[in-house]
């Protein structure tokens, strides 16, 4: 099975996977009472140089576009393109629920669907200097900020 096919299966399975009763973070993945967040692709450590960073960002953007197209033709419909810039400001002093608290800090924009009573999305996480890029997928019952 190709990487894209595996990622597609992962994303679709998140919409049916029960949520745990307590938060369980694990590296670049986490689950909680109302969310799941998984890493589909992770750039290798040491890839934060400008040229290398751009190569991985392009690769992750291409994979996100391919996954979005496949989900669209599988009956999910076209994704909403959702910018997270400013979401923390819109929330004000109110804390954001998981996974939005993490996403607004690391993911500039998402491809987002409403599916099976949940929000499902894909985006590229920019974890900051010295940390690798990650193509992530998530599902949550919490509305976007």
Automatic annotation (TrEMBL):
UniProt-recorded name of the protein: Uncharacterized protein
The species this protein was found in: Streptomyces evansiae
């Amino acid at each position: 099975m190709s990487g894209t096919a595996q990622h597609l299966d992962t994303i679709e399975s998140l919409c049916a996977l029960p949520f745990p009763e307590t938060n369980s973070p694990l590296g670049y993945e986490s689950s909680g009472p109302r969310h799941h967040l998984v890493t589909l692709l992770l750039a290798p450590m040491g890839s934060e140089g400008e040229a290398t960073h751009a190569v991985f960002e392009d690769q992750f953007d291409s994979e996100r576009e391919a996954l979005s197209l496949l989900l669209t033709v599988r009956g999910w419909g076209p994704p909403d393109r959702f910018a997270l810039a400013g979401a923390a400001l819109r929330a004000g002093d109110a804390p954001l629920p998981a996974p939005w608290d993490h996403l607004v800090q690391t993911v500039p924009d998402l491809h987002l669907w409403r599916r099976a009573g949940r929000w499902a999305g894909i985006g590229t996480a920019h974890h900051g200097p010295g940390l690798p890029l990650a193509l992530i997928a998530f599902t949550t019952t919490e509305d976007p900020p």
